[in-house]
Amino acid sequence: MLFAALFARSAVKVQEQLSAVRIDQWLHGIVFQWRWWFLLFIFFISAFIWWRTLDKSRLREIVLYVSLIIILTLVLDEIGEEMTLWDYPYDLIPLFPPLSAIDLACLPFIYSLIFQRFRTWKSFVIATIIMSGIFCFILEPLFIRIGIYQMLVWESYYGFPIYIMMAVICKILVKRICRKSVTS
Fold this sequence. Notes:
globular; 2 domains; two-stranded antiparallel sheet; single chain
């Protein structure tokens, strides 16, 4: 019991130090740099385009889908960063979530546009595969090149099936939840 308490205090102290370093680094080298402005632009343009193209007659269903995608994205991204599979040298905010512009706007909004536009399973899966390919083999390398994403022990193609499974799992969940809410 004493060992656990000492370990917990030690872990908290290390976390405090890490947070202080992250905030200091963000304040003195990231905020207001061109990459920071780029991420801010991605965040707001994604939100704007999503809202303008959103099928508001299906708002509840689409927002549920987006919420599930955001939760999955944040959890997987946090796991990957904690396990030092990848890193985000630049971000809008200095603490969690890791890459807020992508995790909270760009990626979920693209997923939701596919969800609302491609209603049959076949077209949905095809569009998701195309989106996964674009993210893994075009956008991730671009983000690496401009310095806002860094792969440590990860390869772009590892994410390809993950992007697809996220979309499919979230669609299944949303359909089941919506079906349950109609019958209840």
